[in-house]
Write a structure and sequence with these properties.
By secondary structure, the chain is an alpha/beta fold. It has one domain: Aldolase class I (TIM Barrel, Alpha-Beta Barrel), CATH 3.20.20. 36% of the residues lie in helices and 20% in strands. It has eight helices and eight strands, in the order βααβαβαβαβαβαβαβ. Strands 1-2-3-4-5-6-7-8 form an eight-stranded parallel beta barrel, surrounded by four helices. β6, α7 and β7 form a beta-alpha-beta unit. α2 packs parallel to α3. The longest helix is centred in the first third of the chain and has 14 residues. The protein is globular and about 40 Å long. The two termini are 21 Å apart.
């Protein structure tokens, strides 16, 4: 079974700790989710959001809870892991050595290769399908190329909204898929 990775976004999950917590609880209760990541690049108080988000961990012990970019906070609040954007690849080794699982956003085989070498748990690769604001999709063929060469978890990302798309990325060899909208639509 493919790993299922939910990524939050303020547009769908809310911008206050209570709205975020309620939205995450609803999504986690109605879907099988292996990993969920708190992604909010706009908040003035990411720490308050992280505390509300991580307060759900005891209710969903089979789900890994990741924070986005904030290693120190992930350590302090005992998150399971950290998701890093591609412009932070240089921090993969330190984050991995901290004992946290690390997933990195990648857009090329070379980036994924660096992440593997530096000890990442996995990478997202995409966009696979058309998604707002993310440019030309990489497509399933590029995903197939990378899955055969990388030994860590590869999560297809970008425009994954249907079971048919999930089946297609599974056939392409991805370990899982990551999505914002799939879990809330």
């Amino acid at each position: 079974m493919m790993l299922r990775y939910a990524i939050t976004d303020p547009e769908y999950y809310g911008t206050t700790p209570q709205l975020l917590k309620n939205s995450c609880q609803r999504v986690l209760s109605s879907n099988h989710i292996d990993i969920i990541s708190l992604r909010d690049k706009r908040s003035d108080d990411y720490e308050a959001l992280a505390k509300a988000f991580l307060s759900l961990k005891p209710l969903f012990p089979k789900t890994l809870f990741f924070l986005h970019t904030h290693l120190k906070l992930a350590l302090e609040l005992e998150a399971d892991g950290l998701h890093l954007p591609s412009n932070m690849i240089d921090r993969v080794e330190d984050a991995s050595k901290s004992g946290k699982k690390v997933i990195v956003s990648t857009h090329s085989y070379e980036e994924a290769q660096i992440c593997e070498r530096e000890g990442a748990y996995g990478v997202t690769f995409g966009p696979i399908f058309k998604t707002p604001g993310k440019g030309t999709p990489k497509g399933l063929e590029k995903l197939k190329e990378i899955t055969g060469k990388i030994g860590i978890n590869i999560f297809a990302l970008g425009g994954i909204l249907t079971q048919d798309q999930i089946d297609a990325v599974e056939r392409a060899g991805a370990a899982g898929f990551a999505s914002i909208r799939y879990f809330v639509d």
